Amino acid sequence: MMVLDSYSARTAHAPDVVFALWANPTSWPEWDAEIREVAFVGPATIGARGRMRPASGAAASFSVTAFEPGRVFANASSLPGAMLLFEHVVTSTPDDGALIEVVVGVEGLLAPLWKRLLRRSLGNAARSSVTGLLAHLDAA
Question: Which has the closest alpha carbon to 73: 81, 83, 63, 82?
């Protein structure tokens, strides 16, 4: 995978609380400034599909590509000759909090081209997602 952006942060929130937001795609627009709208019929499982409209750009379909309850959620969207990937991992920390990690990348034959094309629009997507999620949890 060619990485467009990655970001990690520690939080006092439990991993299950963080994971619950990732596993509920219809909640994404509430806390991720990069997402305007999501159509998704749950539950989230590997292979589940939805449609997302970003804050800027065209709407895209996505599918859940990895799902480990309480730990890993990944989704991907098809691009001509590549896949756009969003990987979310949360792990427990000794203080009963969590480490949150998000990686945004592209893979496939045309990944180098898509990396150049998407670098500006998605170059802050992981950081924006993590900080938005944490602000949402802190405000709750």
Answer: 63
